[in-house]
């Protein structure tokens, strides 16, 4: 290769920076001034040193013998299976799905009320939203679990209590998400649709809502993740065995199995089986929505 | 505007409607924006609306298809008394095309779908017929072959031409343009003005808010100068732009035609 090859890549300067990683110039990095590059290398080096030090500290500080027996004692938790999957995992999914369904329907109704031209609807929806966003979900569980039998003399089945409690709470959050999504669609979209002779509802259904939908998919997916975790709050109510969900299995496992926290770890891993794919999905929606959302 | 423009072969003849505006008032809160506007546009006439920013040009245009509801006064478009409480606004709007400064194309739909969606949903035309009409209009604005693209894959000038094709696909009898070239890169302004010039050539009624004085001079049958919510001066383009009588018109034109201190 000759030095004066036309269009050839600049030859790396021999020097302190010319490590193996710099042997081939890589796009913008190759043209950065040496000072900035050196600072970045120093910063990376410091971060790596802190990281290694932290790991060494943990390795030294932790009593691995005990941890092995009380956190990673997988042999002892075999009796949890298959019930933790068939009942616990299943119930967590059921509680999440039903409360999301209630939350979505309620959220749509509330969002429409918030945007209504009739003021009392707006006030009502605002009061509702502020109330349920400001009150701990745990209290709502207690209210439905203990308050409903007290007030009406009927005991709702646990799945209904969860669906109502979490559904009503998430409706408040979902309505805000939907409203923000609808309002994020530029007003000109609605006006352009109306100027083409579309009635208001048609402009919403065909032009505004499909664009808002792309915007709200990521936050709605996050809401499902939150619901998955919040369904664990049902543990404050007395549950029959067939109503146990993952957290209840984990808690009971601590006392029943003598495997320390291992049952909790197992339950935690099962939550991750649900939430991590949802999280990845949300991220995918996010990157896709960014592509085609502006006119 | 009597010079016969080289109309493209696909250009259909236009069934044009006029507009008649009388005593139009519009306020936003305490801001009295339109103060008793009277204005008529004859069928087939091209009227350019000029005036400083904030003078109410956009509001006036938006009152014509009732995107803004006037406080008082009447707007009659074709046979429709648009300001009548009982009028079918959607039926009226079908006959009035509108082109916006920022295009307002539907970003989730392709170019073709942008031009067919209202035909299908509003005029209840069949899919195939709608697509044929849309393609003819896209060809008319010089965008044949772009049907499958999305708006964000087009230049500003191309997007604005799609917006014109979208409006034309509804067979309007009147076209409203609100500063259609103000948001464009200078090099794409010409292609949009060329399309508008051709449209004027086939007899479309057009009400155009614009700062393009050479376009107004060349294409407009009449130029209307607005300031502070009133029509200050109107007449043939050569008269209003070339020899304005009112001091406010003279001031405005001096600023617009002298590009060193333009301030829109
Ligand atoms: N939707 C609106 N709400 C409140 N004020 C408005 C609205 N639209 C326009 N205005 C006001 O009306 C006046 C005229 O605006 P506009 O018609 O856009 O003027 P132009 O198009 O001539 O620049 C401005 O003072 C503007 O602030
Ligand atoms: Mg304007």
**SSE sequence of chain B, one letter per element:** EEEHEEHEHHHEHEHEEHH
What proportion of the residues of chain A form beta strands (DSSP E)?
Answer: under 5%
Q: How many strands, what sense, and barrel or not for the largest sheet of chain B? A: 6 strands, mixed
| DSSP summary, beta strand count of chain A | 0
Strand content of chain B: 15-25%
Cα-to-Cα separation, first versus last residue of chain B: 27 Å
Main sheet properties of chain A? none
Could you give the topology of this structure?
The complex is a heterodimer of chains A (295) and B (264).
Chain A (H helix, E strand, L loop, with lengths): L26 H5 L2 H28 L2 H7 L12 H32 L4 H16 L2 H16 L5 H27 L2 H9 L4 H31 L15 H12 L4 H30 L4
Chain B lengths: L18 E10 L2 E11 L4 E5 L6 H8 L7 E6 L2 E2 L7 H6 L1 E4 L11 H11 L5 H14 L15 H13 L5 E5 L7 H16 L4 E4 L3 H7 L2 E6 L2 E6 L1 H6 L4 H11 L7
Parallel strand pairs in B: 3-8, 3-9, 6-7, 7-8
Antiparallel strand pairs in B: 1-2, 1-4, 4-5, 9-10
Helix pairs in contact in B: 3-4, 3-5, 4-5, 5-6
List keywords for this structure.
heterodimer, A: 295 residues, mainly alpha, 0% strand, B: 264 residues, alpha/beta, six-stranded mixed beta sheet, four-stranded antiparallel beta sheet, 22% strand, binds adenosine-5'-diphosphate, binds magnesium ion
